[in-house]
Amino acid sequence: MPGKVVRILVEIGAEVKIGDGIIVVEAMKMQNELKAHRDGIIREIRAAEGENVNGGDVLVIIE
Known about the structure:
The protein is built from no helices and 7 strands. The chain is mostly beta strands. The strands form 2 sheets. A 4-stranded antiparallel beta sheet has the order 4-3-1-6, with no helix packed on it. The termini are far apart.
């Protein structure tokens, strides 16, 4: 579902665990917190606050 990145909750190099909040996206006037799907380290952030994104877009790389 298309939405707008409201807030990025992590920085490159941050260690995350499954379920940690990564990015907040607003879609249809509701804010949704996208969570880490695996443990790892944030290697790349491919979105910026205020940017419009679509369902299926890769927003963060976790290794």
